[in-house]
Design a protein that fits this description.
17 helices, single chain, mainly alpha, Growth Hormone, Chain: A, 79% helix
Amino acid sequence: MKEPLPEASAAANPWWGVAAVMVGIFLLVTAEQLPIGLLSQVAVALDVTPGTAGLMVTVPGVVAAFSAPLLPVAVGRLDRRIMLTLMLLLMVIASALSAMAGNFWLLLAARALVGMSIGGFWAIAGGLAPRLVAPAQVPRAMTVIFGGIAAASVLGVPLGTLLGEWTHWRVAFAALGGLSLATAIALWCWLPSLPPREPVRLATLGEQLATRGVRVAVMTTGLVVIGHFAAYTFISPVLQEISGIGIGQVGSLLLLYGAAGIIGNVAAGLFAGRHPYTAVLVIPCALLAVVGSFPLAGVVPASGIALLMLWGAIFGSVAVSMQTWLLRTAPNTEAANALMAFVFNFSIGTGALFGGRLVDGIGLAGTLWAASALFLAGALLIIATPSKLLDGEQKATG
């Protein structure tokens, strides 16, 4: 039997649709993580502690987590092209409200809308590659789409941080709104009609966890992402207080961090398709080494910058590696992707909240070591999983 053609096969160039989805993810991840670079400014301007300011990452992460599985269920058979466009229009509204917020709690309310947009978009976009391009091009399309995450680190968050430093943090949020509007128009024009092949139901979401590969992917992703954001949410004070780097240099260093993330994303896209088990095992092990050693080895600017670059390259490989894992093991790709989006975003919010409490309680070094303990747990979980679930037996159920 011949494989079904992708919905975009009739389009002159389906890669324009892939590019539009990538830019959408780029903007959403930028919106979610932009407060990391602006955290010190917002905390001073709105008179809150750095730990409290970390809620700007926690709130959209938690809201996105619950939006990811629930919005696809709620919209039922709504064309996914329409849904993706609506999620970007919601980001326009959220960005405008963020820029105009008169106090911290109004800003958090706007950040909740950001979370709805992120969850709804990511739940659909993560599994679109097989529907947009031919089967042989799917790995490349996945690398491009998830390159939006790394590009947000190398361009979105650092440039937003620099824009906030040069002008005002409110300008950075307003700029996101304008770019989101342009991307919503591009999605509408460049994507084909994408009716759901099988509407996602709550029962379908739970059924994904019957597959051992999905269970391990979900748990490992949770541990890695919680650990990462517990530490990385506070990278600005880490660089300043541990490595002795001035606040004016943070935006530029985040550009380098993101560049390293793009390298990690491309490398993972090439490697994970052939060796997914090894790819996902290396991630928590390498993060353990880098983040765990930061308080001891990153105490001067040169070593702090070097460790930051390694950190970026490693975390840049997470999304494409985990998505490759899901495509090999999940019985229902869209449902599993919604579940993974829940876990990823809930873990972002949980990690930022966990890190905020630790930073205010035991300090930056203790927070980095606590994050490292989670990376160790993730590595042990993968070691305990038979490699044949990924490298040999696709769609293996447990």
